[in-house]
Amino acid sequence: MGPIRHVVPFTELGRHDVGRAGGKNASLGEMTTRLGDAGVRVPPGFATTAEAYEELLGSRDLRRRVEAQIDRLHEGAPLDEVGAAIRSLFLVEPLPAPLRDAVLAAYERLAEEIGRESPEVAVRSSATAEDLPEASFAGQQETYLNVSGADALLEACTRCYASLFTDRAIDYRERMGFDHLAVALSIGVQAMVRSDLAGAGVVFTLDPESGFPEVIVVSAAWGLGETVVSGQVDPDEYTVFKPSMKDPELDPVIDVRIGAKRLKAVYADTGLTRTVDTPDGERNQRVLDDAEIRTLAGWAAAVEEHYGCPMDIEWAKDGLTGELWIVQARPETVQSRRRTTTLTRRRLTAGPGEPLVEGIAVGEAIGQGRVVALDVPVDLDRFPQGGVLVTGVTDPDWEPVMKRASAIVTDHGGRTSHAAIVSRELGVPAVVGTGNGTRILRDGHSVTVSCAEGGSGRVYPGLLPYEETQTDLAELPATRTRVMLNLADPSAAFRWWRLPADGVGLARLEFIVAHQVKVHPMALLHPERLDAPDRHVIERLAEGYLDRGDYFVDRLAHGIARIAASRWPAPVVVRTSDFKTNEYAKLLGGRPFEPDEANPMIGWRGASRYYSDGYREGFALECRALRRVRDGMGLTNVIVMIPFCRTLGEADRVLAVMADEGLVRGENGLQVYVMAEIPANIILAREFAERFDGFSIGSNDLTQLTLGVDRDSEALAHVFDERDTAVVRSIQTLAVRAHAAGRPVGLCGQRPSDDPAFTAILVEAGLDSISVAPDSFAAVKGHVARAETTRENATGRREE
After folding, report:
1. Active-site entry in 6, 418, 520, 783
2. pLDDT in tens, 534-549
3. Quick one: how far is CA 10 from the chain centroid?
4. 160 is an active site residue
5. Active-site position among 157, 451, 645, 748
6. Which residue range or ranges hold the PEP-utilising enzyme C-terminal domain (predicted)?
């Protein structure tokens, strides 16, 4: 056996060196030596070895003294007492002289390499059992930033060694069955990136919430990255669509969400770091531009391809040079371990009413219990099993408490915060970034925490009833009739990616306008017609946009793109806005632009708005958003659908307006469908088929207008029936005429979910597709399969 090598530069390490340098340092070495040709930049540095740690344990009988404390733990001594005792052993133990000399010599060589005397470095702990597929030790040991000078470096190294025995690390190894003294610690010393003068964050090479693999999610905040990882800030979040990255002419950034970023970590005057308030001018600004996002996403994709698994990556931007760097990379360990063939669905079974607080949903579960509001972690015996933890922000010291919670609610943090990451690992629902959870939620009150309603997590008063169902996707039958999804909420689109759906049969633009744009489009274009309060609110919403129309286009395009990406390359039918005038008037700034109508249901809606003087400019913004998604982002699976088109002349005028805005039917594969919801659409089906590429039946409106029944009338509810002979005959007639013209016919609505007999009618009529809500997909798939079997049997008997 040769002499101990105490320090190894990153340039001599690779991923096979986990046992020698720990997961973190092995990965840094792997990227340094293997991914430079892909453009990936890693700050230079070096690592102490596991052998050096073993030498430390062997000095002055340290190993035996640590073992004695572990024995005390197994005999019933309190964890916090044992942990403190072991850490004190390391903190008072001087580093062996060979290790100390090797670290200081490597530090001098690093200083020469980067051309700075006593350079600032990051000192990171790297356990030899860290970042394994079956267990993640990441975040359990300490990291020290802005360490400068020999004495400060040696002190930081000593504290890193001691951090191998934090209470949370001891507890984790106990639960996972790891021998405490079989896990060694390597220390990574890496040149600091001056992100205190710029920004930093995290990159996941899949959607961390749903596991959707076709996107890269970049989070970013101003200053050092510790505020993002710890959850102290609500960061920006940028979503990049992987397939669009292959074409340099396309914009792969399909979603941009600006976080509050109220704090940032910067260098402290006396060394290390401090947290300060983010200046107002930076809070609403993007940390990264599209070119920088694309660079980071390209690097992340290269790292993922090299490692062959989804990755969790930390990045930093140097404010002095403007350069981007990768400072850590590890395998993603939550979504990659989920069973992909089983879909678990939870839903509240009673109307929940108004939520007490809202934030970002983490996970898809529902939890409930009594609120336990805490400012700091407490002993486990003071936190009841199944309590709802409510606090400002969590860090690793909270993990023992988090394991006992039925749900977690924080004031601050985003989807890559500590609270979010740990709650995913634990399978505990969490609502993060509420802003006011600690102020609103009262200690001891019973609440229900729901993360099963899309991207927004909500906390409701009381213990609400809910149900949980599981579907084995591998057992769903194959059908000739396409079963598609109705999707409205872009934030929830990715959660359904595992469903074997044939695309999206209906994505409603008005939902995106109401919930993500929040402003009437004409109010953005004509602020002079608004009163002062509305004008002020709109100015705040659209801050940073010189052209207020661009705000509408950006928000709408991002919403459409998330839905389209979730099913790529399957077709996604996007219906242009179909608000009624009373609904439009309720949008921010909408009242001056909407007339009062006695019956908005059959009034100024759908196609009639698009070419009119009162909304033509607003429709142009919708067209700009759709064109950006298809032509700019490359999501050409988007099919545009026109609602409530009454006449052939109206169809011609709408198509002409679309062409004026660059949406020309047939160009770049653009298809345009029409809703079949008016008897005229059925009567003139052949003529409409000459103008449109397909039909989608809106069964509610078709029933209403065929039977002359207000679909919202309680008094006439007994008359309103999609299975009425007149309605069924209309569906059958449309299918025959459309198919004769070579046009597909689908139906989007709730009735197939509730009524297998109605599904059978649609299958018998020969419809090409049925589109339903995601939570009804499995049931409708079964209804369709049975109806197709029945139809085949009947056809066979008739042929005989």
Report:
1. 418
2. 999 999 999 889 999 9
3. 33
4. no
5. 748
6. 477-788
